Request: fold
Amino acid sequence: MKLTVDGTEHELDIETDMPLLWVLRDELGLTGVKYGCGIAECGACMVHIDGQAVHSCQTLVGDVWGEVTTIHGLAAPGTLHAVQAAWVKHQVAQCGYCQSGQIMQAAALLAQTPDPTDQEIDDAMSMNLCRCGTYPRIRAAVRTAARTLQEGTQ
Amino acid sequence: MSRAGKIARRTFLTGSIATAGGVAFGVYMYRRPSANPLAAGLHEGEAALTPYVLIRPDGVTLITPRADLGQGAAHVQALLIAEELDIELDQVGLDPGPPSAAYYNTALSREALPFASTNESRLAETARTLMDAPIKFLGIQITGGSTTVPDGWQKLRVAGAVARETLKAAASLETGLPVSDLRTRGGAVLLPDGTRLPYTGLAARAAEIDPVTDVTLRDPSAWRLIGKPTMRSDITAKSTGQQLYGIDVTLPGMLFAALRTNPRQGGEMLGYDASRAETMRGVHKIVPVTGGVGVLADNSWRAMRAVEAIRIDWGPAPYRPHQGEHWRALENSFTDKRRDSRLRNDGDVDATLASTTPLEAEYRAPYLAHAPLEPMNATLQIKDGKVDIWTGTQIPRFVQKNVASVVGVKPAQVHVHVTMSGGSFGHRLEDMMVRRAAELAMQADGRPIKLTLSREEDMAHDYPRQIAMARGRGTVSGGHVQAFDLGIAMPSIMRSQMRRLGMPMMGADLQIVAGAWDQPFAIPDYRVSGYRAPDLAPISSWRSVGASTNGFFHESFLDELIHAAGADPLEERLRLCNHAPSRKVLETVGEMSDWGAPLPEGRARGIAFCLSFGTPCAEVVEVTVTESGIRIDKVHVAAEVGRVIDPVNFENQVQGGVIWGLGHAILAETTYDDAMAEQRNFDSFRFMRMYQCPEIIVRGLENDSRVRGIGEPPVPPAAPALANAIFAATGIRLRQMPFVRDMDFV
Reply:
């Protein structure tokens, strides 16, 4: 089976019903993708498939329809994506375990909705659970990232 | 982690370098500091100037033994050392260090004494000092009780100062210049002519001399780091997927393990049939362990799928199987026989209650899982009589001792490498999962194994927050609260927890009344009684422990009485409050929230206060009644901590604590059926999401001379402040958590 992740094509001999999450973590060593619930409730496992945010724990590897981007491939090596830079600026993370998923969700939101309303931010980001309670900082960081991205495209 | 490995793997020699980082508390016999665990096996040119500062030719490492669970403990500990060491935070490596008696926690033991933290009498102070001695003697290295900052405030700065002065003495020997001519900055000793001698180059000489222990801590006006916003050292790694947690540990030849143990916690495994699992792809071995079965496989998912395919026959639980029986046990515990403490008994409560018809109310709080987002995991390798463990834990010394006992080796042969934790909230004060992982590793023929619990397996064995009930009776007189009598019943958290750790539990369990008996109010007739319910399901410390339920009971009932008296909830609390820093906290939150200013129709405020872990914290919650339910608009928080070490991390901690308090109060509970937790994932164990999250405005006060922690104190006032706001908005009094049972929320 062929799978393209963060721009690299992999040839894998694995079951097609293995969730993408475990292929990424255990077969490819991309441990920035996190296991939190396994039932698409927490969002810690979020990756992009062709730019769309998906729960990798509920996506079977045989069903993957496009190129996979993980937190490791969101930005070019040695650089930060605007969303990551905003996460650093606002010091969002506490334990940080959910933040890969939060960042992937926010990056997908801003790619589709460059100037989201507060309501749109809340709706999209409510897919992701943070037990430490970093929501106020996530909100602020998404707004900062939206501004940065818009300034960059003007 | 790799650096921790290097330190921990060194053999135990008698250190020739004295420990100087500790502050000497306690009686003489125990006053000799513990051996410096870093002194063992240092190489040529390396110096461990205190147990907290390790200098090698290639760099300076600060040891941060309190576990980082996401609360920023590593950063805060490093900051306190670096302040006095005169080194920048981006010039140092951080390392949790090996488990060692040198890293004792004295602030934690102080909270176990029957003196309110506001009591500064000579008796209370003496008792606190005496308590330090045995804790230090036992070398209890525990992260918890919001004690990292209070415990480290003095000793980490002293550690930094000792290292700095010793390096200056070494530079003086090296250059022949008097110490008084030397300055320090940016990780180097500066000579009068501007020459920089980096600490790393002075390590060899510093190791040859006795540490300079006669040091003076800097005046606050000279601080470079304390009180200023700093960048937490883990932020970039946690924003790029680079941060490694326990669950990410990968070792050559490692097997991936999954586990199922009896969901009737503590019950036996009677038998199992693994015939289907044995044939599944990637399965290496089926391994029976105490109370369950594990699978070793070549991938986590294959291991989890195989363990699910095993048919297992579970024995009964050692506790009552049904939730209703647990509530009944509490209902029946308000008796003289079960009375555990009555530390508050002012005035003549019985006479006042008998003189009129008292207002009565009953409150309930459910079991609650800790459920940090990183499922519990441990990686172990047992080879050549030596055990290596990588796990995120708050109790590394217990892990070392308990795994040694499982494996049958001496604790010195067990090396615990503490990893970054993806949350804890008290969950990592338990180590049963690590002991089961050790049983798996014993059957892995020397190969490393990584046990990852499934979310369901983790939440089935969460050792949740205590279930608790309270009954209040009170009277009002002349527009004021006159009598306040609160009885609280819960099983003993400490007994449940200590028993699993093999520790004795003596005397009353103060957690049964924590956050209620010790509040700074001068109510004329004021009584708080603790009732110890029989042991039910196993329970453990959950962020803010006893106060997580008792703050709700105390502040809800006080609010009921204040409303019955026709008084203003803030004014009456201020009138009753007899502790100046707490009064200031109440006044501040009143000012922040514009308390008393009119609000539009359908909108209201509620206030609550709780002094827990020595930190007075007050919150005002503002709610709006909407067609789809209650919306929480805004929360104002004021807390008195003596010193705000880092305002950014402080704000994040407080906001997180409020969300923790509100999210569970509204939505979450753990219930038992057939002795098994019914909520084993985030679909049924619900928590606040962003769309429900209010704006949270935070202010830290620095009026008290004592420095306090902030990880837990914002939790207890959150639920009662919300319930009190909902009462103000709707006239409905919520007396049972989760509130969603009785009320819709947006």
